Amino acid sequence: MVTRRVSAPSDLKPGHVGVVAAIRSGDEIDLEDGERVRLAGVEAPKLGTDRSPAWPMAAQASEALGNLILGQRVKLLYPDDNADRWGRTLAHLTIGEDGDWVQGRMLMAGMARVRTFPRTANGARAMLDLERTARASDTGIWSDRFYRIRNPDETWSDLDSVQIVEGRVVDAATVSGTTYLNFGRDWRRDFTFRVQTDPRRAFRRAGIDLEKLTRRRVRGRGWVFPLNGPMIDLTHPEQFEVLEE
User: In whole numbers, what is the pLDDT of the chain averaged over residues?
Assistant: First the structure.
């Protein structure tokens, strides 16, 4: 595990302190008082279940988190939403007197990737920077092709999964208030990022002019589903990066 200390984002709400009693996966823990906590903003490789096999390096990610925090006192810091639909607490964690940021350490070690939602995206840019550094050096999960960044042409093989997709926008078009970033000339089959009306407002506030992205290279992440070709809904700007040429 990487040992360099990293500070948590400043826009998180302070919570209580608990002791980590169990590691359930690389992104989920139990505290001694029975509270179940899901690490906000990141996704670690999933352990296997009766219905699905484990992702590569799932055991290593769980072990890494355990080596970092099992039995330790952690401070909880909350994003805008601090609970999910399964009743788990959503939080960032820090350890030690100097407030070492657990999500940051897992990202630096390549044991998790960034995954946010509209109200859990606090600190996303800092997390993306840490993820990018780990990926550039093939650290942890980034050494395994299972986690590679997809190009738009191969996403038919990635339906019903979370992926990071990078490519050059062929056409950016807005129809009835929804913007489509198309990555091919045949919109019925090619990969698309879709941004609906409410998220479009958030993109504008973030300074991203979606309609000017034709021929720009971009990267986005989310759930790939079939709708006139593979598609990812961009629900908040932290899912998306406009790349330098």
Answer: 95
- Name residue 239's beta-bridge partners: none
The per-residue pLDDT for 1 is 54
CATH, residue 159: 2.40.50.140
What CATH number does residue 59 fall under? 2.40.50.90
d(CA 127, CA 105): 10
Query: CA-CA distance, 192 to 153, in Å (whole number)?
Result: 10
Do 32 and 137 lie in one domain? The reply is yes
**DSSP reduced 3-state for 225:** strand
Q: Tokens in use for 48?
A: 């296997």
For residues 117 and 91, give the distance between their C-alpha atoms in angstroms, rounded to a whole number: 13
Spans in the chain with pLDDT lower than 70 = 1-3
Please check whether residues 115 and 199 belong to one and the same domain.
Answer: no
Q: Give the residue from 91, 123, 143 where a domain finishes.
A: 143
Token pair recorded at residue 203? 């993109």
What pLDDT was estimated at residue 45? 98
